[in-house]
């Protein structure tokens, strides 16, 4: 392709509003159109591709996102590393609104989503023991600490189908299982990146406590005003973190499991 990028970022258009000289391009894929046009800009000596996973006008609910097209478009641009921030709810009292969680595991509770590039004829069993890139996770944690952003170095995100939120019973089940974060978009986004041998890191922006925790007397009930306030604060912190991460992420050769994910995945 004429356009190339080193690093990809999924998120809302507000995530790249602080950049200058952004060029927006359309990318075609065998899996259909991505969620929107991709914005490409330069940070330091790196080309960065930004794609709002819900579309700029947030027209795509989580279960209708064309995840395969989004990931394939990044691969087509030459992207080898992706940062996938997302707004999320907390399932544990110690994971507070305003905190960031750099997840190391996910639990999939979605259904019907196209979640593989390999429907045959070559059977491909991708490994998912550690679904997030360990090298990118280290950079995310390090830079968050340097910026004094409250960060949890690991956590499990349970991915629900959406677009509805959980019932109290569902949320309590997730909390009792010890999972920290609830979200609607991390699956299959993360595992599709691994199938393409792209490094992927999640940064969960905690905006509120999930409904199952609202009966805890130590926790204030969630409000729309509170969620918007925390989200806006998180966006500013996220912009700072993205900028510092992108500057620190190396380009070129990779030694992590992501880069060789297909070597032992086929019979």
Describe the structure in your own words.
The chain has helices at residues 67-76, 134-146, 168-176, 186-195, 224-248, and strands spanning 7-10, 23-25, 38-43, 46-51, 81-90, 100-101, 105-109, 151-152, 156-160, 181-183, 199-209. It has 267 residues and is of the alpha/beta class. The protein has one domain (7-260): 3-Layer(aba) Sandwich (Rossmann fold). Strands 1, 2, 3, 4, 5, 6, 7, 8, 9, 10 and 11 form an 11-stranded mixed beta sheet that branches. Helix 2 (134-146) crosses helix 5 (224-248). The two termini are 32 Å apart.
What is Rg?
Answer: 18 Å
The separation of the N and C termini measures: 32 Å
Strand tally: 11
Number of domains: 1
Largest sheet: 11 strands, mixed
CATH topology assignment:
Rossmann fold
Helix fraction bin: 25-40%
Class by SSE composition: alpha/beta
SSE order: EEEEHEEEHEEHEHEH
Mean pLDDT: 92
**Name of the top-level CATH class:** Alpha Beta
| Low-confidence spans | none
CATH superfamily: Nucleoside phosphorylase domain
